[in-house]
Amino acid sequence: MLQEWQNFAVVTGSAAGALTGLLFVAVSLNRDRIVGHAGLRAEAGQTLALFIVALLLAVLLVIPGLSATTLGIVLVAVSLASGATLSLINRNQPRPDRSQARGRGGLRRRDQAGGQPLASSGERPQFSDLSAEDQLYRLLDVASPSLVSVLCVMISGCLLLAGGNGLYWLAAAVLLALGGGVVSAWLFLTRAPATA
To answer: What is the pTM of this model?
Structure first.
């Protein structure tokens, strides 16, 4: 059963490794901005954790001789460890409305005509008043790919332990981790506050 997934593991493992390396390059190029900002550091850490989880899951699929039961046990342990890690990283992230991570103007709201951004006035704006990027940012906060990815790994491990085929859940976890990591990296790198 696991041999059928080796091509998937090779492709996603390669992608996760490349994205992890690119994240290090991007963070090092923006080091001065990120080091002095707790929110950006937390977002960079969360993105790194997502890429590492995807890489680890791909590596587990290509380990020779691994039984489905052993893989199930390891996946449950990985989901617990990655869930705890992501929770600790998320705890260090400032919460007000992420206006510190937004750069100069905080959340960008659109005027009633629908186009021009408005400055933040302190109250939490309606979802429909946000710019498209801020809407995406808020959606990622609510429907966290980190949480869903960790849950998919847990479901996959439990199904394998019960004798079922949970590898499609594992595939979903890897794809969510990679996709969520890419979007998260894009958002925190484009929102990095300007240095004074």
So the answer is: 0.73
Which tens digits make up the pLDDT trace of 167-188? 999 999 999 999 989 988 887 7
Given a cut of 80, is residue 93 above it in pLDDT?
no
The secondary structure of 36-92 as a DSSP string is T-HHHHHHHHHHHHHHHHHHHHHHHHT-TT--HHHHHHHHHHHHHHHHHHHHHHHHT
Contact (CB, 8 A) for 44 and 19: no
Burial of 158 (0-12, 13-18, 19+ CB in 10 A): middle
Rg value, the chain, Cα: 19
* CB neighbours of residue 190 within 10 Å: 9
Distance CA 66, CA 128 (A): 49
Q: Could you give the CA distance from residue 114 to residue 122 in angstroms, rounded to a whole number?
A: 20
Alpha helices in 62-194 (DSSP H): 68-91, 132-142, 145-161, 167-190
Please check whether residue 114 is in contact with residue 54, taking contact to mean a CB–CB distance below 8 angstroms.
no
Query: What tokens appear for 39 in the block?
Result: 């929110």
